[in-house]
# Entry
Amino acid sequence: MPTCLELGPGFAVVVACDKLFYWLFQHQPDRILPLLPDLPADARGYRFSAPVLKEREYRLDGLFLPPPQRPDLPALILEAQMAADAGFLRRLYAETARLVQQESTIHHWRVVVLCPSRQLNFGDPAPVAEFVEQRVQWIELLSAAANPTAPALVQALALLLQSEQELPATTSALRARVAGTGNAAEIDDVIAAILVARFNGRSIQELCAMGGITLDDFTQSVAYREIFGRGEASGEARGVALGEARGIVLGQVQGEAKVTLRLLGRRCGPLSAEQEIMIRSLPLERLEALAEALLDFEGMADLHAWMAANS
# Structure
């Protein structure tokens, strides 16, 4: 997509998946607060959701509602826009208005936009100038990447833009900055989440090298378990990862088959001996494809359909 801004050497334009931002804030809504230093120092207790707006079925990146006992705090409407889009400002205005219309409990609100830079082409601001000037707060990741005093979470999010070649040095510096603090484990998790989201399909060895994270820590991170629905298989997945690191292909196949069979039993019900044999005989790439597909299975009919299509 064309832009009016060159990000410069060392940075890459990426499209961050909605699932990443949903994971970042789902269980820790107050994670948004360090990004908004003008809020009261005692602001906390936000509730996070990603509501679907009616009519167009458009899902927001995030909605943070303050606790009922704090009517002085604004509701926060999050939008992550990682690439130029000439229709973005008009769409943001329209979808925000639709949310305020739909959610009658929202009275005091602001919009928080995460983006590489405001200099990207987001469209002519003139038609929505009052909204942009008074209601929108911008968090620019390119500026954060160059600012050593920026909140650690913002610097971690800036990894979405970092070139692959510079990721190891950047992640190492970021982890050194938070080492020994209460944020260390959280930042490790965010780094893992971003690497998995950006480089889905790469080997775990490569991801660990990029993030400066040990294989053991990476495969046990909340990001690895939850973002792509691998929580149920974390123990076996760690074994598969260790097998990969040692180059034991047979161990990978056996480990993947064990995980897949267990998840299929939970999703589809008991498998026949013939079905187990067929699944164990699948090559590794087919097993991995089945492990991804079964996350959407609702019963045995889905397994039959997949096997028929991939036999």
In short: The first strand starts at residue 47 and ends at 49. The chain has two domains: 1-162, 231-310. Confidence is low (pLDDT under 50) at residues 228-235, 237-250. The domain at 1-162 is CATH 3.40.1350.10 (Trna Endonuclease; Chain: A, domain 1).
